[in-house]
Each structure stands twice: as C-alpha cells, then as structure tokens.
Fold this protein.
Amino acid sequence: MATFLHRIGQFAFRRRWLVVLLWAVILGALGAGAANSTGAANSSITLPGTESQRAFDLLGDKFPAANADGATARVVMRAPDGEKISSADNRAAVDATLKDLKDSSSRVGQVSDPFAAKTVSADGTTAYAQATYTVADADLTDADHTGIDDALDAGRDQGLTVEASGSALAPPEEGHSAEAIGFALAALILVITFGSLIAAGLPLLTAIVGVGVSMTAITALSATFDLNSNASALATMLGIAVGIDYALFIVSRYRSERADGYDAKEAAARANGTAGSAVVFAGLTVIIALAGLAVVNLPILTAMGLSAAGAVIVAVLVAVTLVPALLGFAGERVLGRARKRAGRKQVSTKATIGQRWIAYILRKPAKVLVLAVLALGVVALPATQLKLGLPDDGSKAASSTQRKAYDMLAESFGPGFNGPLTVTVDSKSPETARSGATDLGKAITDLPDVAAVTPAVFNEAGDTAIITVIPKSGPITDATKDLVGDIRSLAAETESAGGVRSMVTGTTALNIDISDKFSAAIAPYLALVVGLAFLVLTLVFRSLLVPLKAALGFLLSVLASLGALVAVFQWGWLKDLVGLDQTGPIMSLMPILMVGIVFGLAMDYQVFLVTRMREAYVHGADARTAVETGFRHSAKVVTAAALIMISVFAGFVGNHDAMLKSMGFGLAIAVALDAFVVRMTIIPAALALLGKRAWSLPGWIDRILPNVDIEGEKLVQQAPAEVHQDGIETPQYSNQH
C-alpha cells in the first residue's frame, strides 16, 4: 500500500496540472448533471416489513384518494376569551379566513368547513379546517407559502387566534451562519497548527472540492435513487470533516518529511505513502460503518449511510491525489515558519503539552486508565433513560405556528388528538369486513386510555374499513404505546376468530415499529461493523489486542455521547446553550446512526495515532518508547484534527432541523470524548501496560495476513538509493529487535 501510494504521490506531484484538470472536469460534469436534475429529494420515511407500513400500503391501494401526494395544511382557529367560535362575528371571521386561504393559490384543492365537518371543540372555543393542495409540498412556491401566511394574518386581524400546521407551510429557513462559523474555526485551527496560510488553505480547498463533487453527485442522483433530503446534509457534514482531516494528515507528514531533508517531490510521495496509507484505511473503516447501516433495511437510513460513505470515498481520493498535486504548486510556502524554527527545535529543551501529557500517562498508566474509564462511565449513565421517537410539531420551536397549533389542538381536543391511531380492517368478503370492523370498534372503545373511536369508514368495494382511535394520552407517552399494543392484541384475536385482518398505523404506531426495528437491528449491525473493522485493523496493526482495545474504546465513546445527548435533548440540561426550545425523545434514527458515524470517526483517530506508534516500534523502538514517540509525532495533528471535526459538527447545532441539531451535538461530543479521552488517554495507557504484547500476533495468523506496509517500511529500505539520486542526506533507522 505504501509503495503504491508513493507512486501515486510522485505522479500527482509531477503531473499536477493534469490532476487538477481531471478533478475540475469531474466537478463540472457532475455540476451539469445536478443542474439538469428534474427531481427533488423526498423527506418521507418508509418501514419495510413492519405492520404500520403494511397498513399504510393497504390504504394506498384501497383508499387512493385519501393517500394523495398533495400537500396539506390544518388551520386552527380560536375565539377571543369568553366567546364561542360559532358566534355570528367569529363565524364570519372563520369564513373570511378560510376564503382567503382558498383564494391564496390556484393550487388549493379544497378547504373544509369546520362547522359542517363538526371539527369544533366540545367547549365551543376552537375549530380547525383542513386544506388540501393539488401538488406535493416540494412543488409549492414562495407565493403559495406567502398566501397561507397572509390568510392567517387576516384571521388574526379579525380577533381570532389563528395558527396552522402541515406540509404546505413554508419550511424554516436554514441558518448557515453557525456552519460558516464552524468552517472559520477550522481555518483558524489550521493556521495555528501549521503557522502558514498556504498550508492551512490546502485542507480547506481540498475539502471544498470533495464536498462539491459529493453534493453535485447526490443532487444529480437524488431523483433516480429517491434519496432522502437528509442524505445530502449528513454527507456534507462528514465530507467537510473528514476531507479537512485527511488532507491535514498528509500535509503535516509532508512538512515532517521536508524537515528530515527530502526534496519536495519525494516528501510529497513519502507523505502519500505513509500518512496516505493511514488515510485509506481510516476511510475504509468509516465507509464500512456507514455502508453497514443498510443492514437495518430502512430506506432513509440506507440512503443517508450510502450517500455519506460516497462522500468519504471522494474525500479519500481527493486526499491521495489532489493534495500531492497542490503541494507541487505550493512550493516552499507550505512550510511557513516550520523551516525557520527547525534549528531552534533541535536545541529546545522545553517540553510541549503533548510531551508532558504522555510522560504523565507512562508514569501512571493504571491510574490514568481507571480514572478515564470511570469518567466516561459517569457521562454514559443518562443513556440508560434513553427514549426514542420521531419528531412532530410538538418538538418544534415554541415560537413556531406549527407548535402553537399543536398546543391549541391538545388543549381543546385532548392530548391524544395530535397522535391519532389509524386501524385498518380488511377481508375478501365485504360482509365479513363490516362485521369485523363493528366488533373491533366496540372492543377498542372498552380499552383504557381511549378518548374516542370514530365509526368505520369503508372503501367503495366495501372490503376495507378505517377506524380512527383518539387516545387520552399524548403521542409519546407510555400509555399510548400500551394502547397500540392492546389494539394489536385485539386485532389478532379478531383475525383468528373471524378471518378479518386488522392492522394499526399512524405516527405513533410508526414510532413504535421503528424503535422495535432498530432494537432488533442494533446487534447484527454492531457485529457486522465491528467484525469487519476488527479484520481491517488486524491487517493494519498486525495485532489482536490493539483492534480489541479500539473496539472497546469505541463502545465507551458512543455510550458517553448518547448519555450527553439524553442529558441535553431529553432532560434539558444546558438546552439554552445549544438553542434548544423543546426537549423530548431522541430521534429514533439517532442511536444507530451515531453508532455508525462515531465508530468510523473513532477508527480514524485510532489509525492516525497508533500507526505512528507501530511505525516507531517496527523501525526499532522498544514498546514504551514507541508509544511515546508515536504520541509525540501525532498528538499535535490529531488534536488539530479533532478540534476541526468538533468545530464542523458543532456548527450544525445551529440548524433548525431537530435531527441535524442533535446529530451535530452528539457527534461533536463523541469526537471530543473519543479523541481526547479514549484515543489520547486510554489507548496509550493500555499500550503502556501491555508492552510488546500489544504488537504481537499468533504466528499462524501472521503467515496468512498480507503485509499492507502501512508504516512505509519498504520506503525506508529503498531510501538510500533514492536519496543518493537526489543528493539528499537521509536519516537512517536502526533496528533494535
């Protein structure tokens, strides 16, 4: 691997104009494809193989009109204090508001009359109307959204309290300022690390190119592969982070090789052969973790995982091809102050923070190991109270009209009104379906926590019915979850007794099914991802104990990050610090998504840090010295890489989307804990305690494993001939083994 990437680095450095041109052509071609893409990414969630999805698909077949793809809006109107919504003045205000909504766009299909539809609260103060559009929400224009807002304002001007919810409302404006701040912080960290604007600019430039290629590819393919709208956001998040980090490691190694006396071309090639090898294998672990999300068999998660994995592949390719090419353009300017300080570094006796830290760890490895593990265990404790759910209007900002409409409906129609359950009843015989629906409806009415059960509504063929059940409790309560289970038990009894199939769907049922699906998938997912990554790391480090410690450290990181996520987003600790308006269950996708992403990132730092330790060991250092040497060479750049990732991920905390906000926070915390507590504290302490046993491998395994030479040992062996040709004095390695 090292020699192969060494040749690529030489080629890219020598033919740099060709490499830059090729990437420009790729970016331009994908940009043209994205510009000509006719479809938009969707935001729907499907759950293949679950009861709620089967019921939803049945409704699509039997009630096609009720499952049209048109956007919808629910307008909630409340009379002034002490008045009834049905009074003459208020009724006129309601009619005028709904007329304005109907006239606001030619795309409005129909608007219901709350008095005719009997959608007025029992206390007579509140009513709601349902508006349907003839086009999907993605096809609505700014003028359509403005029309809704104007109609709501008109109702408010007439004394009503008017709020609305639904897919027809304008999505919240995305705040990119926080993301820009994260990118700016990454630039500042790079400048401080390298002491050179040119060296700092290279990782930023290559990351932008990589993300540009990834985003244009996703946009061009979104319609063809029906990619979810969150796929590009996750790919952007990871693409920026790993793109900067991968380039950072190669540029840093290049400067180190130049300091050792190599000329620019050979230094770029050697940096590509050594640090580039670490980049390839680190990227491979991230790709495995992200692509492994497909085992959950959830389309939205598969799309997000594969899109992000594609962004990581692009980041790796950019790092090992474009970075050496740009180093050729940069010349001596990439060295910055490093060359000026070279002489002073040789005589300086002042220890850096990293040197003092590794010295402390090596003096007291057992104490450090125990304290670090206990600290992560304490942070992980809130994870035992983790509750999952899907975001709804109740999780939106308190100032949003959707949240206000949600609260008004809960106050006037009951907490369960915002989480109705849809029960489907079908049979080959219309008579059987009718009797089964009647019996099931009566049985459901007698269940606890049922506020109301609507009469069954049949399709034209009469073989399928819909029963709507309004719980007494809110959508995310345990009582409503128990109610879903009770209805499904009744449905099973009805089916066995009379041959009628009944199923439960709706948002609450979807929450339950998706949680069960994730619970069932987490074990095989972990086994697949950790197993494959264990094999990759065994190949890289030629050790069994090092990959084992890497996996155990990852578990500590992910549990601690989930604990922090629960404490902030579920319990509300420090919620104002992250701009969180509403606490609630953690997004159902988050745990398994975080497992995949955090595992990949954890292995990044494992590879970058420990390969330098193994490199020192392979080149002759004893086990303890190897840990110290590898840490000394890698600590600064790993710290910079971690701070960059934290900055990029933390930038997404400012996003309006609850999922992206929580994902950005969770990943930022996970990187901080994994990089600084696990990789730079626990791992060195464990390696110090294990000594040379950490680098041992049973002979029979050693014989069957191919030698990928990630440490660049072959490059060291061929160094004298190459150096002689260039006329450069090369430092030689001694072999103490």
